[in-house]
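Worked example 2:
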Amino acid sequence: MDETTTSLRTERLELRPVAERDVERILEYRNRPDVTRWLIRTEVDPEAFRTAWKSAADDPDDHSVAAVLDGLVIGTVSLELSDGMGQPGMPSRTEAQLGYIFDPDHSGRGYASEAVAAVVDHSFRRLGVRRITAGCFADNAASVRILEKVGMRREQHGVGDSWHAELGWLDGYTYAILAEEWERSGSPLS
């Protein structure tokens, strides 16, 4: 999602493209030990992080947003479009990979679920995505709660498939939702 993309609004949040001015704020919580504990990529180099966000802004398949509460960035929701698996003639850009990182100082109030649900809804209704997937460590109860709260179903339980820097090999979960499931559910958080 580039800076010309219209922002999304939820009841409490503005979801807008990440601006260069946001990167320092995102890094404040992104490299906290209580956040990196649950990320595949632990601490990131600030300059590499800035470069990655700048290139994401120019990528037509990247629809990531900053979640802003009363002018403060409290999280990000990433959404990367891709082609699914299939035979020739399959429509392109019908799959999406979802991720999110939120400041723990704002946890427990439903902000992450609210933002993720809005991005999922936008993906299906505006971007023409038909299937969204997301993954997490099985022990990350907060992430499991978010994914299930927005109506995603657990499709895979990978036993010992995810390396954790402190804990070794852990189980991982993969969640997914189809556009038709989202429509049938009536958008769980609306």
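Residues 8-185 form a domain with the Aminopeptidase fold (CATH 3.40.630.30). The chain has six helices and eight strands.
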